[in-house]
Specification:
With about 100 residues, this protein is mainly alpha-helical. Helix content is about 80%, strand content about 0%. The chain is built from four helices and no strands. It has helices at about 1-25, 35-45, 55-60, 65-95. It is elongated.
Amino acid sequence: MVPRVWSLMRFLIKGSVAGGAVYLVYDQELLGPSDKSQAVLQKAEELPAPPKFNFHIRDSWNSGIIKVMSALSAAPSKACEYSREGWDYLKERIK
């Protein structure tokens, strides 16, 4: 039941975004004559530029994935090391 609801929500969200884009293009008359399209383009160029941040999203976005992958890549060697320590401990206890 949940997968169906989730896929329906995804479909509705994507449809809403696509519908909004089509409405915006139609409302701004971007598909009309070239002089109107050029006027809309000039209007869009007059808008202020987005602010610049010194925050790198990539560094924090993938940090969890990088940590998990580094732990998974070190897991075989750590497992070998821990098993060797375990065997050495058992050998000492048996003697």
